[in-house]
Amino acid sequence: MDETDKIMKAQMARGSDLSAGPLKDRIKAVVPLLVPLFVSAFKRAEDLATAMEVRGYRGGEGRTRYRKLKWDWRDTVTTISYDGTSFSGYQVQPGERTVQLELENVLTKMHKGQMIRVTASGRTDSKVHATGQVIHFDTNLSIPVERYQKALNVQLPRDIRVLEVEEVSSDFHARFSVKGKRYRYIWNCEDVQSPFRRNYTIDTNGVKPDTNKMKDAANHILGTHDFSCFCAANTSVVDKVRTIHSLELEWHQEELHMVIEGNGFLYNMVRIIAGTLWEVGIGKRDPSNLKAVIESMDRNKAGKTAPPYGLYLEKVYY
C-alpha cells in the first residue's frame, strides 16, 4: 500500500485530477496510475520466481526438484519400523491399507488438514517388514524435534513405530540420497514352529539346509553384475546393474538368517536370491550353477521368489 500511495501522490502532483471532470477524462487520468502498478507487480512476480528457484533442492545426480516457497518449514527425516503383516505394502494404493497412507493421515491431522506427503527410501511389498525404513517430510509445526517421535507414536497404529526423528538440510532426499541398504531374510527350521512366528519367518517344516553349499553359491553373487535373473519380469527398470557388498548366512538357534547388503536392489531381488539359495541348500541346485544363472540374465533360470513375510528392510545407508 505504501508503494501505491507514492504512485498516486506522484500522479496527482503532476496534475492528474482523479475526481473531477468527465468520465473520459478521469479514465485517462487513471491509466498513468495503473502502468507503474503493473510494472511493480511483474517485478514482484519475478523476484518470487527467483526465490522459489533458490529454494529448489537437488535429489540425487541429474535430478532437480522444486518445492513450495516455505521459509518456516523444516526438513525432517524419520527412521521407522513396521510389522508388514496387515499392510498391502508401503506405497499408497487405492482402497488398501498401506504404511504410507497411515503416516500421511496422521501427519495431515497434526497439520490441521494440510496434506503432508512423505517420501521413503524405497517401497516394500505386501507382508514385508521393516526395522529401519527411512522417510522424509516437511513440517511447519513448532514441536521440538526431540518430541516429534512421541507425538507421532501416540497417534500412529501399533504396527508402525517411529524410532528416530531429526532435522536435515534441504538437499537431503530419503530416496535419491541412498548409498546402500541392508536386508535380512529368515527361515525357521524348527520341527514345530511357534504359531507366534508364522508371520515373521518362513516355516521349513524342520528341513535344515546345507549352509556351506549356500555360502559357496553366495560367492558368485558378490560384486557388480547385471542382476536381471534376480528381478521380477514385470519391472520397468532398464539398468539392472547392482553391486552386492556382502551376503552372510547365520544360524540363530533354529533360525537361519540371510543378511545381504548392496548399493541397491531390484524389484523382488532379495526374495529371488533367497529362493535360489534355498534350492542350493536343499540339494535342488548345485552351488556352481549360480554363475551361469547370473550370466544368463534370465529370470527363468533362477529359483522361485521366496515368500514376503520372512523379509525385513533392516538399514538404509546415506
TrEMBL record:
Tell me the GO BP annotations in alphabetical order.
tRNA pseudouridine synthesis
Q: How does it sit in the membrane?
A: Multi-pass membrane protein
Per UniProt, subcellular location reads as: Membrane
Q: Which CDD domains match?
A: EcfT, PseudoU_synth_EcTruA
Record's GO cellular component, any one? plasma membrane
Gene Ontology molecular function terms on file: RNA binding; tRNA pseudouridine(38-40) synthase activity
Q: InterPro entries from the xrefs?
A: ABC/ECF_trnsptr_transmembrane, PsdUridine_synth_cat_dom_sf, PsdUridine_synth_TruA, PsdUridine_synth_TruA_a/b_dom, PsdUridine_synth_TruA_C, TruA/RsuA/RluB/E/F_N
Membrane in keyword set: yes
Identify the SUPFAM superfamilies for this entry: Pseudouridine synthase
Which keywords label this protein? Isomerase, Membrane, Transmembrane, Transmembrane helix, tRNA processing
The Pseudouridine synthase I TruA alpha/beta domain sits at: 81-176, 217-318
Can you state which reaction this protein catalyses? uridine(38/39/40) in tRNA = pseudouridine(38/39/40) in tRNA
What main location does UniProt list?
Answer: membrane
Task: Quote the Pfam families the UniProt record gives.
Answer: CbiQ, PseudoU_synth_1
Q: What class of enzyme is it?
A: isomerase
Q: EC?
A: 5.4.99.12
What family does the entry list? Belongs to the tRNA pseudouridine synthase TruA family.
Question: What name goes with this protein?
Answer: tRNA pseudouridine synthase
Specify the species. Rhizophagus irregularis
